Amino acid sequence: MSVVAVLANPGLFMVDDAWFYLQIGRNIASGAGSTFDGTTPTNGYHPLWMGFVTSIAGLTGGGRDAMLYLTLVVQVALAAWTVALLPRIAAREGFAYPSFVATAVVLTQLTDKGWVSEGMLTSALHVTVLWSWVRGDRPWRTGVLLGLLFLARLDTLFFVVAVGLFTLPDVRRAAVLAAGTAITALPWLGWTFATTGHLVPVSGAIKSVFPVPDFSDPLEKLGWIGVATALGSLAGLVVALRATDPRKRRLLGALSLGAVAHALYVVLFTAPRWSTFVAYYWITGTLASGLLLGELLAMYFTLLPSLSATARPLFAGCIIGGLATAGSLKAVRSVLIATPDPTVRMALWLAEAHPDAVILTVDAPGRIAWFSGLPVIGADGLTQDYGFAADLEARGMPAVARERGVTHVLTYTIDFDVPWARIQAAPDGVNVRFVAPGRGTDAGELVLHTPEKRLTDFVPDGEDVAALFPMP
């Protein structure tokens, strides 16, 4: 039911970053290079998933619907692989109620806004790594898989290191595993360093204050999923260290340690007012929490001696069925009550009304670019290059925008504050004070008057919160 809901209205289950992948992948496949706006080179993505999306773009010729739906089909296959393999891993390592574990883990992704992003690939590679590791495959194979996992989502580095630490009692095996990981990951790291002078994608660097910690708003940085999985993983780490079964200690310990280290990094080094609110940020923690939930369910049953051994699996099955039904109904309900996306409608209108336009947008650059086919500059800098923020700091957004040929500005028309802009409503328009992404410094102001189109022109019953203005 969840998958059907997603296929019926994919945009409801996608964050704007997902459209970045489609847009950049289509540009790479067409020969335009690794660029979002068609001009500026960018490395603002996780490379392995971009490889998948670029291949899909090549197979479909970059057609809008064909590319989107083939990507969704690939993700369904990846989710199915996770569902098939995760219970086998949990059962092999002695964890209770492995189907409960798989249901809890996969539902957090199927019903979340993580579709078309790298989450399904990250989950599939997590379980593939774990299967290779617990079976005792040759360490170089597990190492290669760990390298691929790192390239699927770079902040899985914490889990990669945790696997190495739990392998470390066998020094030779750990060394071979590390070599396999390095051989797989180093080519991309070398390429991005050679082309940008940095090892981290610009989209990650903008959100980070490393190495100087920032202690503000830890709960906002983590988001509710991050808080839940961090607490679950912390409890999982305690359970793992107290476990008498070495299999449980190793598997739950590596996942929990990686997840706790990741959460700690997010709390300390994420820039203020950025939030990691989507499930694909927290795959390692979701897996650890899922295993822990199975164990807690088994512990709960020990407190119910009247519940027979044959009735316990039935009771667990009812809980699993309830979780699956609730998650699926949530997804279906989202589709049934959805209204048309005015941002998409504006993008389609732009393609017809202003086929030569260049758009500067305060939000939703992915959807605007994908559905309009026009060059779009996102003020957040996530799809630009490393020089973008420095250029804004030195010359200001108005000068940079004019130099890049911007003809229109899409912005909120209410008082609104995001890390890269501060918007103040005015009686006849709006004032947008830009901030250099990742630097927090002033980047100039645009005073906008007389909007050409409002979102409510496309969805009259919607909220009047944003409008398209001519570039002054």
Cross-sheet strand order for the largest sheet: 2-1-3-9-8
The sequence of SSEs as H and E is HHHHHHHHHHHHHHHEHEHHEEEEEEE
Query: Kindly, what is the distance between the CA atoms of the first and last residues, rounded to a whole number of angstroms?
Result: 48 Å
Structural class: alpha+beta
Number of strands: 9
> What number of domains?
2
**Residue-averaged pLDDT:** 92
Q: Assess the beta-strand content as a share of residues.
A: 5-15%
Radius of gyration in whole Å, from Cα?
A: 23 Å
Shape call: globular
Largest sheet: 5 strands, mixed
Helix content: 55-70%
- Put simply, the count of helices is 18
Q: State the low-pLDDT regions, or none.
A: none
3D structure, described in words:
By secondary structure, this protein is of the alpha+beta class. The chain contains 18 helices and 9 strands. It folds into 2 domains: 335 residues, no CATH class; 129 residues, no CATH class. The strands form 2 sheets. The chain has a 5-stranded mixed beta sheet with strand order 2-1-3-9-8, covered by helices on one side. Strands 4-5-6-7 form a 4-stranded antiparallel beta sheet. Helix 2 packs across helix 16, helix 11 packs across helix 13 and helix 12 packs across helix 13.
Concise account of the structure shown:
This protein is 60% helix and 9% strand. By secondary structure, it is an alpha+beta fold.
Topology:
Elements (H helix, E strand, L loop, with lengths): L1 H7 L7 H15 L16 H14 L3 H29 L5 H13 L8 H17 L3 H14 L4 H11 L3 H26 L5 H5 L11 H25 L3 H24 L13 H20 L8 H26 L5 H12 L5 E3 L3 H8 L3 E3 L8 H9 L1 H7 L4 E5 L3 E3 L2 E6 L2 E7 L6 E8 L3 E2 L11 E5 L2
Parallel strand pairs: 1-2, 1-3
Antiparallel strand pairs: 3-9, 4-5, 5-6, 6-7, 8-9
